Amino acid sequence: xxxxxxxxxxxxxxxxxxxxxxxxxxxxxxxxxxxxxxxxxxxxxxxxxxxxxxxxxxxxxxxxxxxxxxxxxxxxxxxxxxxxxxxxxxxxxxxxxxxxxxxxxxxxxxxxxxxxxxxxxxxxxxxxxxxxxxxxxxxxxxxxxxxxxxxxxxxxxxxxxxxxxxxxxxxxxxxxxxxxxxxxxxxxxxxxxxxxxxxxxxxxxxxxxxxxxxxxxxxxxxxxxxxxxxxxxxxxxxxxxxxxxxxxxxxxxxxxxxxxxxxxxxxxxxxxxxxxxxxxxxxxxxxxxxxxxxxxxxxxxxxxxxxxxxxxxxxxxxxxxxxxxxxxxxxxxxxxxxxxxxxxxxxxxxxxxxxxxxxxxxxxxxxxxxxxxxxxxx
Length: 378
Prior knowledge:
The protein is α/β, with parallel strands linked by helices. Helix content is 44%, strand content 17%. α2 crosses α3 (93-107), α8 packs across α13 (322-333) and α11 crosses α14.
């Protein structure tokens, strides 16, 4: 198959999944053309069967805002024409699926299929804006196939938009051959020179991730158990988080690492992962931590309960319940035998989302869509 893959190239989960999916499909012999305004973060180094096409943006005094949707459509037309694309796989309905629809109209070739994967923010935040709701619904209904990364997200989409569309649930995935716990003495010595427990969190530091809750939970934990907090990522809430750490007198115990491409060394050193999100359609960063044998304490929102198992791979609490999350963390960190059982269970659970299994689901779904049948065969 010749696949046009369109995603946001940043550190968010949708871009990570799209990039890893494209790389895995290329290894299986398909040709994957990434189309975006910048090189996807995890698309590093040469790989056979992968081509990157940059969407060029021009600034004209007449336009107050860059016309990315239209520029992306034009690039899709170009790639489809010269590379004989079989299908566009769009990660996020707005603007990617809309751009694909416009491209197909310009191509006059209904044979080019459009598959849209819903990742969460496009449905739960962006699409519910009154100005975007009609185009969101239209983009979904005009796609030949639609997938969602969790059952929660599928039901949310059907309830919010009333779309008349089959939505297939294909979960996010992790390459357990890459994400596994490995010797981490060097990183442990750097983060926790006095043998403290290491608590980790990864996100894009948007308000919905509630990173300040991570710091407040940690503040309670370190009163009982010597520990340090390692925060990976960057975003609009980072300055507020740094200020909170100083206000709580934790500046020497909280490490802000910023954006990182290689997470395994840090996760391999971690003892616990915190994810107190307000909204989480799946929880990819939690899955990656679990694959590295790191138990997770998370909120109960969205698709998180579909990823981890309360009382086995970690613990789940209500949004904003800092005291309960702290008690769960202290319970795990203070009981080595229990922690070992949870760590092993986390790795075992992550293996159920092994990339090879999920990529095969996408491959089969592509084949069905190309054959004109979006529903699974009996």
